[in-house]
Fold LETM1 protein.
Amino acid sequence: GKKSLRQKAVEELKHYYDGFHLLWIDTKVAARMVWRLLHGQVLTRRERRRLLRTCADLFRLVPFLVFVIVPFMEFLLPVFLKLFPEMLPSTFETESKREEKQKKKLNAKLELAKFLRETIAEMAKRNKADTG
């Protein structure tokens, strides 16, 4: 069924709360990783990627907070997200946006594989013609 305005508002507030909560957890974990780095320990590749993602999210948070703090500016958020799709911190992404990104990446990889396959087939034909 159709959701009321109150239900939509509550869902949005939960989404923002969850996003900020996840960002807070990521920030605490990243701070521990930085502490370990400063004391000479080496991070795994997975930890390094998480640290980089968290730092990028914190830098993305600054323009995002402008939309949250300034009254009625959240109505412009969809426009800016359309213009700058990577502006939103990763903890605020919805599942549908995450799936859409994965589909785009997969399509790009498939196109690249198709191009490489065609190139190799063409090179094989040329080599066959040269040797024959």
